[in-house]
Amino acid sequence: KYRAIRYIQDNMNFLQGSPLLQLALQGLRLCLERETGQTAARASDTALAGFAGELKREGYRALQVNQMAHHAFLLREEKREQDAETVMKHLETESQTLFQEIENRDRTPIAMVPHMQGRLAYYRGDFQESLKHYAKACEWIGSPIDSRFEETLSDLHNSAGKDFNDLCDFPMALELFARALKARSKLNLEEKVARTQGSAAESLLRLG
Q1: Which of 18, 16, 1 is nearest to 151 (CA)?
Q2: What are the two backbone dihedrals, phi and then psi, of residue 35, each rounded to the nearest 5 degrees?
Q3: What is the pLDDT of residues 47-96, one digit of tens each?
Q4: Is 85 helix (H, G, I), strand (E, B) or coil?
Q5: What is the Cα–Cα distance from 157 to 113, expressed in whole angstroms?
Q6: 65 burial class (0-12, 13-18, 19+ CB within 10 angstroms)?
Q7: From the CB of residue 133, how many other CB atoms can be counted at a distance below 10 Å?
Q8: Most exposed: 10, 22, 88, 101, by fewest CB within 10 Å?
Q9: Which of 3, 2, 48 is nearest to 26 (CA)?
């Protein structure tokens, strides 16, 4: 339920002022299905993948790529690593194409692809590879110009901080957690603030 609620929050962030607000409601449906005992990944296999296809038909390719990246991570959380990797391999090609087509417009949705690639690499224990993906995601986003960019960058800083923590580079981990904490506090993202504080506390404890 907790992950499903976070999923809804992410959708709402991308859909403000959009006619596709129903996508956020799709996230709510996944949450309710999870309450009845169905896993989020299983529910999203048909519901989310089908809706992503509808997005693509309507011309919202960047948002479709973003949602399928979320879907891939849900698959990983349900221990379906091979399925997740298959989805991400397809999305890597699609996101590269979109990166060239979008040019100077909002690339935040497709930056979710290298971010999810980084998270998958992190859970494989490949921390250096994970950091390469996060750097690519930051490059795609560019300079933050509104709150949506700031939140996405804070997510990347938080994720990268975890890599440096596991690489035992605690000063760098703490610097990244501080950046994430500053942005998340500014945006009143209380849930994310708490998670970052917990990660920073672990780094401080290990630093001694």
Answers
A1: 16
A2: -60, -30
A3: 555 555 555 554 567 777 777 787 787 787 777 888 888 888 888 888 87
A4: helix
A5: 16
A6: buried
A7: 25
A8: 101
A9: 48
Which amino acid is present at 77?
A: E
pLDDT in tens, 23-55: 544 554 555 455 455 555 555 555 555 555 555
Report helix, strand or coil for 79.
coil
Q: How many of the other CB atoms lie within 10 Å of CB of 77?
A: 13
The candidate with the shortest Cα–Cα distance to 30, out of 54, 51, 1, 9, is: 1
Total-model pTM: 0.68
Enter the DSSP assignment of 168. Answer: T
pLDDT in tens, 139-158: 888 665 556 678 888 999 99
Which residues, in sequence order, are CB contacts of 14 under 8 Å at separation 6+?
63, 66, 108, 109, 148
Q: How confident is the model at residue 19 (pLDDT cuts 50, 70, 90)?
A: very low
List of residues 6+ apart from 174 with CB closer than 8 A = 161, 200, 203, 204, 207
| 3-class SS letters over 1-33 | CHHHHHHHHHHHHHCCCCHHHHHHHHHHHHHHH
